[in-house]
Automatic annotation (TrEMBL):
Pfam families: TspO_MBR. It comes from Fundulus heteroclitus (Killifish). This is Translocator protein. GO terms for cellular component: mitochondrial outer membrane. PANTHER family: PERIPHERAL-TYPE BENZODIAZEPINE RECEPTOR, TRANSLOCATOR PROTEIN. Gene3D superfamilies: TspO/MBR protein (1.20.1260.100).
Length: 164
């Protein structure tokens, strides 16, 4: 294993950390609380989520490695593109605990809209640096827009149990 392999592996693996932790929360709720919600007919089956998220996390992680490498590490030039990446990753990791853990359709919807914007901003900041890295986020943004539409329908059709 070369010295350059470690950053590649680390950056590619990092998004999966939050995904695994979120999966532990989601797993508890998917057959109970989430199953009781009214969802649109075009909502994907539960079995699709691990496959989709493995692909999306790997793509975003590898894209972040490409940006880091292109900018020579955590340099002054990397502050905005890597900062936006960190923001969207934090919002991504917060999504499952907020929606599945706290059972909050309203805050889950607000948070996912912010996440969509952060992904778009990350893509825009990455594009002039490395087009491939930016385009690796395109499936992720598409999936999140789809998920946002699902969350909107869930919010609309399932009022939160408690006043917020």
């Amino acid at each position: 294993m070369t010295t350059m392999s470690l950053p590649l592996i680390g950056f590619t693996a990092l998004p999966h950390v939050g995904g695994i932790l979120g999966g532990l929360i989601r797993r508890k709720e998917v057959y109970t609380w989430y199953a009781s919600l009214k969802k649109p007919s075009w909502c994907p089956p539960n079995a699709a989520f691990p496959v989709v998220w493995t692909s999306l996390y790997t793509g975003m992680g590898y894209g972040s490695y490409l940006i880091w490498k292109e900018l020579g590490g955590f340099t002054e030039d990397a502050v905005v593109p890597m900062g936006l990446y960190g923001l969207q990753l934090a919002l991504n990791w917060a999504s499952v605990p907020l929606f599945f853990g706290a059972h909050s359709q309203k805050w889950g919807l607000i948070e996912i809209v912010l996440l969509d914007g952060a992904i778009g901003a990350t893509m825009l900041s990455w594009y002039p640096i490395n087009r491939t890295a930016s385009l690796l986020l395109a499936p992720y943004l598409a999936w999140m827009c789809y998920t946002t539409a699902i969350r909107y329908c869930i919010w609309r059709d399932n009022p939160d149990e408690k006043k917020e």
